[in-house]
Amino acid sequence: MKTGAPSLRPGAAQPIGAAGADARRLLPAWLSLSVLVALLVILLWLVVAATIDLWAPYDPIALAGRRLQPPSLAHWFGTDALGRDVLVRTLYGARFSLPVSVFVLTAAVAIGCTLGALAGFLGGWLDSLIMRLADITLSFPPMLLAMGIAASLGPGLFNAGLAMVIVWWPVYARLMRGQVLTVRSLDHVEAAVAGGASQARILTKHVVPLCWSPILVNATVDLGQVILLLAGLSFIGLGARPPTPEWGQMIAEGASNFYNWWVAAAPGLAIFSLSLSFSFVGDGIRDLLDPRTGSQ
Hints:
By secondary structure, the protein is an all-alpha fold. The chain has a domain at 83-289: MetI-like (MetI-like fold). It is built from 11 helices and no strands. It has helices spanning 16-25, 33-55, 86-122, 124-138, 142-153, 157-183, 187-194, 199-207, 212-235, 247-256, 262-289. α6 packs antiparallel against α9. The protein is elongated. Mean pLDDT is 87; it is low at 16-20.
C-alpha cells in the first residue's frame, strides 16, 4: 500500500489553506492589506474634499445646534463652543489641509530636486553654495524655523505653506544630489558623454530619470508630515484664521474646551488617519520600486 500526500482529482475541492494561498498570490507582494486600506482612506478623503458641498447637512461656519452639545444622532461628534457641527467642519477641513499640503510638497520637491540635480551634476562652487544653504536651513528644527518664517510673513494658509516650502526643500536637494552623484558614474552616462551629448541632455535624459525612486517614496511619506506641520502652525495661530474650518485650528479650539473632548476628537482622528495612511502607502511604493519585491 502506497503512502504519501493524497493527489487531487480534476474538479475536486482544494484545501482551504491552498485556496487562500492562491488568492494571496493574485496580488503583488507590495500590495498588502495595510496598503490597500491606506489607499482606500486617502481616496475617501479626496472624495470628501471634492464633494462635501453637495451633501453636507450643515454649514461649517453657521450655527447648527446648542453650544458644546455632546455627540448625538443629530451631531455625531457634537458641536463646538459656537454651536457649529464638529464633524461637518472636520470634513470641510480636508478642502484646506489636503490642497495646501500637496502644494507645499510639490513646490519643495520641484525646487529641491532642481537645485540638488544641478549641484550634483555640475559640482564646483554651485554645489558648495547650494549645499551650504541646505545645511543652514537643516540646522534649525523644522517646526521652529517654520514658526519664525510664518510669524514674519503673517498668519494665513498661504504664508504657512510658503514657510513650509522653505523648510522642506533642502531635504530633497540633498536626496537628489546623492542620487545624481551615484548615477552620473554609470556606464551609460559615460557613453553619452563620449557620444558628444550636451550636459543638459545628459542630465535630463540619462541621469535624472534614474533618480526618482527614493524621491517618490520620501515624498509620499512626507505628505503626512506636512499635514502635521500645517496643523501645528494653525494650532499656534500662524496658519488658517477663524472661521476657516482647518484641523489644527479646530484642535486649538478643543484645547480651550479641554473637558469637551469631542471638539478636538474629529480633527485629531482626521490628521491621524491621513498621516498613517500616507506612511503605509510610502512603504508600499518602496516595496514596489525595490527590484527584490516589486516584480513578485
